[in-house]
Design brief:
The model has no long low-confidence stretch (mean pLDDT about 95). Helix 1 crosses helix 4 and helix 11 runs antiparallel to helix 15. The strands form five sheets. The chain has a five-stranded mixed β-sheet with strand order 1-3-2-4-5, with helices on both faces. It is globular. Strand 2 and strand 3 form a beta hairpin. It is an alpha/beta fold. It contains 19 helices and 20 strands.
Amino acid sequence: MNEEQRSLLIQSSSRFPTRQGVRLSYGTAGFRADASILPATVFRVGILAALRSLKTQSVIGLMITASHNKISDNGIKIADPNGGMLSQDWEPFADAIANVSDPEHLLQLILEFIQKEKIPFDGVKSVEILLGRDTRPTGEQLLESAKQGICSIIGAVSVDIGVVTTPQLHWMVRCRNKGMPASETDYFEQLSNPFRCIMDLIPKESMAKGFDKTLIVDGSNGVGGEKLGTLKKLLVDLVIEVRNNGEEGVLNEGVGADYVQKEKVVPRGFGPTDVGLRCASLDGDADRLVYFFILPESNGEVVLVDGDKILSLFALFIKEQLNTLNTKKNNDYFQPCLGIVQTAYANGASTDFLRKFGLEVVVTPTGVKYLHEKAARYDIGIYFEANGHGTILFSEQFLCWLESRIEEHSSVFEGSERHKAALRLLAVSKLINQAVGDALSGLLLVEVILRHMGWSIYRWSELYQDLPSRQLKVKVLDRTAVVTTNAETMVVKPPGLQEAINAETAKYLKGRAFIRPSGTEDVIRVYAEASTQEEADTLANSVTELVDQFLGFGSS
């Protein structure tokens, strides 16, 4: 690194002093905190993004959002060249660069990292970082902090793409690095065109059943409602009414997917006149989606159709299309492998349901990065969390095989069920956002599959009955004292705790319980489910007491 670059880093970083006593950690959500303490962190993540872009010689993305958090919070996270999250190998550096105390130590840290990673610093080739933000009022100021960080690295250029959803930013990064069109208009077309294709292939018998074409969507008073207002104009045969679109009301306050999923009550703007209607809710940055409907005389409670049931719907549809292709009868053809990926927090009833249909279900540790990585190992990998975040991944090998089948069927079996199944699968691969969970693309896929199946939201919600569950947490002196294995479902340390949990769980019909250390605070999270809510509550409390006995000092 030459003297000009060193001087530039020292001068620019001196304008963004860190707050004393503040220490942040980069996780699945990136950095997230009260917006007032974030300028220095965002500035330094700008530097990190520029270094990542130099290292990969690719376009990198920076998204300024705090998703479903309250409006006074904000955050920043990085989109890697494939549109996914920042490589886990770089997370320790992210923590270090955010928390180092002064410009001189920051420079030293960067110099050591550049040498370790062999990052080219000749300044010959410029690199681009795409910058997006949600609708939070603090986003514009933090955007400027990010720009200052990026331009502190010679050869790095920031491109402001304005107010976008988080999935849009990830999608644009992925497309730019694939050499594909990547504007917002291209994004909307990418969703609306395959949606129309699958709609055109809906079986006549399903069309004959009739279908309520109206969907009411809670936009969480965030960017998702705004973008859905644009997207809905491009859709055929689907009427979307967007409420909580940000014109009135506060972001994530009594609205949004996180609120509906956790509280199981109607968001603001919904009421008795919506009884029986098909409703959906996005979160603040539109990367989560849940559905719900309101029963008569429910006092504001909703019947939730969460991420587990969205996953089940997608899995059944894709399995149906693969079966129609009759791949197993053609030994000379590629045999696609369909995999379902969940975490231990997925309701046990959903896992049982999927396995009864002959689907391969695997469990990963909690966190989208683990789910996405595991799903990518399949020809078709589907992952979702109960909170409504998830997507479908298609391997390049499978897509090449599929396109060759479509070409073959076009000349021999055009119009056949096998040909239609192949066309549907290809359209799904284009409609779904394979970079990251996307509430808008997920919503369109749900709608077209329900139409294909001829199902109402009631029929969908009755696929299986969720087991009652309860989540608690225990404050502990040191969360690292708990070590887990088998996707966080078994305790290795402290000795004897897992055996005690097993003994409690065995007392209950369909009992299941596990604990895991929090990634951000000194608490141990407890999950329990059983055949009744009372038993699930009792089991959770019993496990909480066990954790408290072994290493805690009080529970909540």
